[in-house]
Amino acid sequence: FGLLLIYVSYLFFKRLLGEKKALYGAFILAIHPYLVRYSGQVLSESLATLLFTITVFFFYRGWVEEKGTYLGMSGCFLGLTYLTRPEYLVYYAPFALLLVGRKRFLHTLLFFLAFVFLALVYIMYLRLETGVWMISGKMIHSPFVPLSAAVTNIPAVIYHFLAAIFPPFLLLLLMGFRSVDVRFRTMSILLVIFHILSLSLVGHSTRRYSVEFVPFLALFVAEGIPVFLSFVGRFRYRVAVAFGVCILFVCLPLTQTISFHEGRGLQKSAGLFLLRNDPGSRIAARLPIESFYAKGSWINLEASCTNLQECNGLLDSLSSQGVKYMVLDDRITKGCPHIKDCLRGLPCIADFSDNKSYVRVYRLKNE
């Protein structure tokens, strides 16, 4: 999907900016570290990013040219994106606001029809499986946080969003921001605002959840490259400076050849182990990965460990919440060193490890 993403983006950039700047944008997408990394992993991010990018490009064209066909296609692709990653449902709101703001109610209805046909079937399936109305099965594992906590989450979400854009590309984006059509700027700003607010409502945010914004924001970067080259042209040794910067950008993808989340595979193994032995159980862990694979519910162990420093208080709190299993990894051991003392006397029923990290499953004595 990575190559197809570059090609689709190039076609849109060429239509809006011209061939030269379109090549700049395609080059940026080809070397962006996080796009390179996730396109090589068996995750849903690569497909979701492609579908969301097509959604944005079709919507912009239909919105600007007032063509319902493109808006209908945009709604269809956003529905497919929702089926890939249900959290993308939130983006119907900013797109609808842009249409309603111009009093294009028929186009708004057309945009939503695709969701009715594509997403309603999935929502009905979740209703039959869980007995409640929900837009995603992940809501069981990662419930929304209180409003006060959401406000405090906003700075962290912004940090991860900016990190996903990547600092060198962010600098070029700022250089080219004013050169882009004001309507595209308005749409992009609104999407970013809804993205940050929606992520702040969940328990945790990482930069992988913001990677889908890189392709269409690369349009700003493509506009910023000529501005940067004009700035470099003021230097006496401008050729050497430009060559050095080019080498730096080309080498950036190499920084992602080292995985910083090797333990995720171990956490998946722990989740599958619990799925085989006790599916649907309540699990306390640093991340909801184990509970997702075990089809259970998640309790944030890191937050519980931070708030409750005494072992008795921690174990009593987890037991009162119906937690049956505690999953310990090397990351939470470093963040909460005293948790090891709390585990003495608890049976370790599974141990998954490699040369760098480990994941252990403990059974709580609350039965």
From TrEMBL:
Q: Is Nucleotidyltransferase one of the keywords?
A: no
Q: Where is the Glycosyltransferase RgtA/B/C/D-like domain?
A: 2-123
Q: What is its main location?
A: membrane
One Pfam short name: PMT_2
Keyword annotations of the record? Cell membrane, Glycosyltransferase, Membrane, Transferase, Transmembrane, Transmembrane helix
Q: Which GO terms describe its molecular function?
A: pentosyltransferase activity
Give me the segments passing through the membrane.
22-40, 47-64, 70-93, 105-125, 157-177, 189-207, 213-232, 239-258
Repeat listed as a keyword: no
Give compartment(s).
Cell membrane
Among the GO biological process terms of this entry, one is:
lipopolysaccharide biosynthetic process
InterPro entries noted in UniProt: LipidA_mod_glycosyltrf_83, RgtA/B/C-like
Membrane-protein topology: Multi-pass membrane protein
Q: What is this protein called?
A: Glycosyltransferase family 39 protein
